[in-house]
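Sanity check

After download, print the first record. It should look like this:
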Amino acid sequence: MRERYNAIAKLDAEKAEQRKVVAAFLEELRNFILTVELDPAFIKEMRSRLESTFGADGTYGVFVRSDTNVEDLPGFTGAGLNLTVPNVVGTTKIFEALRQVWASPFTERSYAWRQARMQKPEYVFPAVLIQYSFPAEKSGVLVTADLEEQEAGCLTVAVNEGVGGAVEGQAAESLHIRVADKTVRFLSRASAPFKSVLAPKGGIVHVPASGAESVLTRADIDQLIQLAGEVPQRFPSMRDAAGAPAPADIEFAFRGDKLALLQIRPLVENREAARNRYLTSLDATMVERAKQPVDLKAPPLADAKP
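Expected C-alpha cells:
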C-alpha cells in the first residue's frame, strides 16, 4: 500500500492519470476485502459473541456501521462518509455486511475526503460497530447548538416518524429549542408521506406516515433537553481542538416514552456541515413537491397565502 500511495503522489502533476490509478487501486483493495477468506477462529468467535449478546441466530436484527481512525478529527467529520447496512438479520448476512462495511472506506468518495487530512494514507484502519436494531417509532438528530442563528443555550432538532429520521433525506420536523425556558419554535413540519420501519426478515420497508401535526411530544422534548444537559458530564471527551467542550451531534430514537441514544459525536469545527445537513432536511419538502403535477385551472387552496 505504501508503494502504491507513493506512486500516486508522484502523479500529482498528471491529474487525469492519477485519478485513473487511484480508481484501479481502490477497486483492488475493495475486491480483496470482499473476497478474502476470513479466519475460521474469527468466524467461530463472532458467532458466539453475536449469540451471547443478541440471542439465537435469526431472532434479531443489527445495523452494521463503520468507523475508522480518520473520523471526528478537528475540522473533519466522517458522518455519512462510509457504509451503514441497516437491520441485517442472520449471521451469514451479517458476515456479508461486515465485509461491505470494511471495504467502504476505500471508495473514491471516502478516499478523496480524507486525503487532505492524512500524511500516511496507508494507515487507515476500518472498524465495525454491530448495533442492535432499535424499533424506533420516531428518530432524528439533535445538535446541542443553534445552527441557524448561533444563539447560545439553544438546541437544533430534526426528526421523523420511524427509523433513520432526518438522515435519509425525508422532509423532517425541525425545531429550535431554547434550553433556559424550554421554548420551542417549529421551523418545519414532517411532511414526508412515508416512514421507514424495520422488516422482520431484515432490511427497511416504507409504510404510510401518520400525518400527525407534530412528531415530538412535550415529554419527548423535555427528555432531549435533559440529555443535552448531561452531555458534558456523561461524555467528557467531547472536546474541540482547543480542549473546550464541543457541541454534540446526536442521533436519537424514541419508542413509547423510552429515549435511545444511537450515536454521539463532536460537532467540533464542522458546524457548517451539520447546518447543511439540517438545511437539506428542510429542502426535502420542496423536492417532494417538485414531483407533483400542478393543475393550473384548479381553484387555489383556501388556506393558501400569497
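If your output differs, re-run the checksum step. Summary of this record's structure: Residues 302-306 have pLDDT under 50 and may be disordered.
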